[in-house]
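Structure, all two chains, one model.
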Amino acid sequence: MNRPGIKTALLRHETVLLVVVVLEWFCFNAMGPSFGSLDNTFDLLRHSVGIGLLALAMTPVILTGGIDLSVGSLLGLCAVLFGKFWRDAGLPIPLAAAVTLVCGAAAGGLNAVLIARWRLPALIVTLGTFSLFRGLAEALTHGVDTFTNFPAAFLFLGQEHWLGMPAQAPIFLLIAAGVWLLVHRTTLGRSFRAIGYAPEGARYAGLPVSRRLALVYVLAGIIAAIAAIIYTARLGQAKADAGTGYELLAITAVVLGGTSIFGGSGTVHGTLLGTAAIAILNNGLVHARQPREVAGMLTGLLLILALAGASLPKVLAQRWPRRQNAPH
Amino acid sequence: MHGFAMKKFLLPLMLAGLGFLAGCGKSSGPNGDSLPAGVKKISIALMPKSKGNAYFISCKAGADRAVQELGVELLFDGPTDPDPARQNEIVENWITMGVDVIAVACENREGISTALRRARNKGIKVVTYDADARPDARDFFVNQATPEGIGFTLMDEAARLCGGEGEFAIITASLTAANMIEWQKYIEARRAEKYPHMRMIALRPCDDLKDKAQSEATALLSANPDLKCIMAICSPAVPGAAEAVKQAGKAGKVQVLGLGLPSENRRYVHEGVTASVILWNTENLGYLTIYAAHALARGTLKPGDASLQAGTLGTLPIVGDNILLGKPVVFTRDNIDQFDF
């Protein structure tokens, strides 16, 4: 397990997924003439940033064996708060964004306290905050108030180009790199996997489990707030319905990327590939002139196949235990 | 853990999935391939607010009719999930694909305008229908109903049902709703001009709730024994008022009419409680949208034009940058079953 040979590296989940993504790309390129264009590549990047950020936020959470269903709702709440800070409180955009990040961290902190300190199940806690955050966003705007007419300098972040790519892409890549380093190159990141693999074991090994758990949920809150600000810049509007359903897409991307839903194993680059697989599917089908329903279907199919593929050997081994030992 | 063995199965399975995907694509091949050959068809991309909505399915039926008559290519797609950014995403894809015209029923006025402005910057014509975007984000809005058309039709129909005289009451959504205040203005103007013997005795808000509309109507019925007609001008109020009239045993004695969906009121219309339901013809809305999009792409529709030739709908007026669908349709027992939205 420590030093995988070339053969295992080739058959690793991420490698397989990479092949799938590349095949997807060529497939759609053949089907829709505009798919491979530079413009569309930029569209692809732009569209994957929202889900991609939430998937990045979700990866450490799931690695610890947890789940955060509230990130999509928190995106909506942060978008509304950002709008309120800027329009109603009159804060300049950078300050409004900073305060929004603090709010995101605080919201993540609420999840953290309930899950890490009070040891409540993450699924239940974040199901609660999923409703709570969305409800707050709706209450603050009565469901109809829409924040708009943001200054052009801010909209630049979501709609224009910078460094030869969509302006939000460098931010996304920076955060992706940050999360990758955290998960794969620090003891902190290794502890996430240890906690997910065996929480009690991690505790006995002297890991500060509660503090580490709290960290991943607060981090998720902050990233959701960043996603909210980028989302607002892309659409030019902040409304309470922002990010509806994103939490499930983010979880899909993470699990498709090979992270075990039970925690303990998974990678950040797997998550990025999972995000790309879903984004290319959604975008490519439009260019191939296929109706949108197909995208949902194929995303589901892809996920089920990935999961089935991962657990099939186990099932087979249980059903025909002798077969593995039988001489050939 | 189950490191090696699982991957063995993963690869073929993934590939099988992809095979399926590629298979799906092949079937659409001829469609796409025929485009570059010969004269390029005008391609119109049409987007509903949401894809499964019966209202928009009937718009699509009208659009299909226009597409056949005009020989254009139609791309029809829209959100299937509640993600409010999805309309933007699809529009942005259409821009990259280089369609000629984009026609959208806007879910988020501000948000979608961002994407539509970008389309216009790229030289793509933009039409909105059903629900408008920001005026600077589109060329024309296909307006399904003007306040004048709605107000006049409601009053004409009420007068017809009451024989031109007697008391009537209005149930509205709220006393502050801008569009309904506008409609009431035209209802009153029509009454004063053509039906001086009709008298409006009450105006009640129902907060856009069917239950509240029902209790308001019940109160109106007991307080006003001479009431001849209840006019419900927000859609939940029509079945609400009908239920009240039915339970009071006054079906046929007190007429109910209003602005709503035929499907929500079909039962009461057949029971003889609700006399007429008023709404625009959604099929014609889709039909007109495609004609407007086509004319824009051909350059036969330009800013400042005063009318548009729209196939079987004839010549329709344009006011400013609004193409008007014309007078709403009155659904009665005779024709309500022909409409399934």
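Chain A has one domain: 36-307.
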